């Protein structure tokens, strides 16, 4: 998402070529292939190590139940940390370049500059939420060892805040920027408040 925005704003003439369906599919396949390697290693080790009695036990469904060896936990932590660092570098580099181009493109028009920077900051916040989800497994695994009910609550909150919310922000950002949609939303919100006052 970040790189697509970087190409669209910083290299608009090559956007059609670089963000074509074929190249996008290749990128998605590479990302999924690389991200599935640690999961495959953990699952293969689990099936090789787990005894038949383990399958009859009552367990909380979590990744931690598949980890039998400490090296698996270290591998998982290392992969999450590496992914976090790579994504941080890409996001920071891309958004610094995007903000420079947006500022230069708007020139003296302060209103346009402010609007563009606000949109970039909203997208940055959206990506920050996506980055935080990489730290959720560490928090959840620590809480699982302390208290199971607290673990379930935090896991649910993490899912809402860091998995669902970032995906809902893009339609909301572009929807609120559209004047027709914003007026309709304002109308229905005020209509709902007016109706509640009558009741």
Automatic annotation (TrEMBL):
- Which one of the record's GO molecular function terms can you name? G protein-coupled receptor activity
Database matches in Pfam families: 7tm_1
Tell me the keywords, alphabetical order.
Membrane, Transmembrane, Transmembrane helix
Transmembrane intervals: 34-55, 75-96, 117-136, 156-176
Gene Ontology, cellular component aspect: membrane
Location within or outside the cell: Membrane
| Keyword Membrane attached | yes
Q: Which domain of life is it from?
A: Eukaryota
Domain named G-protein coupled receptors family 1 profile is located at: 1-174
- Principal localization reads membrane
| CDD domains in alphabetical order | 7tm_classA_rhodopsin-like
Kindly give the PANTHER family that the UniProt entry links to this protein.
G_PROTEIN_RECEP_F1_2 DOMAIN-CONTAINING PROTEIN, GROWTH HORMONE SECRETAGOGUE RECEPTOR TYPE 1-LIKE-RELATED
Name-wise, this protein is Odorant receptor 131-2-like
> What is the source species?
Lates calcarifer (Barramundi)
């Amino acid at each position: 998402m970040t790189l697509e925005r970087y190409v669209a704003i910083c290299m608009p003439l090559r956007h059609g070529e670089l963000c074509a369906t074929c190249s996008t599919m290749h990128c998605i396949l590479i990302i999924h292939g690389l991200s599935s390697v640690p999961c495959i290693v953990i699952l293969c080790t689990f099936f090789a190590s787990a005894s038949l009695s383990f399958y009859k036990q009552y367990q909380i469904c979590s990744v931690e139940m598949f980890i039998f060896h400490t090296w698996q936990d270290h591998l998982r932590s290392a992969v999450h940390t590496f992914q976090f660092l790579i994504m941080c570098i890409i996001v920071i580099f891309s958004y610094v370049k995007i903000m420079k181009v947006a500022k230069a493109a708007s020139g003296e028009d302060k209103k346009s500059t402010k609007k563009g920077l606000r949109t970039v900051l909203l997208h940055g916040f959206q990506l920050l939420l996506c980055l935080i989800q990489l730290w959720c497994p560490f928090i959840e695994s620590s809480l699982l060892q302390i208290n199971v009910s607290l673990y379930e609550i935090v896991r649910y909150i993490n899912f809402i805040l860091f998995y669902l919310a970032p995906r809902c922000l893009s339609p909301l950002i572009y929807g609120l920027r559209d004047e027709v949609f914003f007026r309709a939303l304002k109308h229905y919100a005020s209509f709902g408040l007016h109706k509640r006052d009558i009741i």
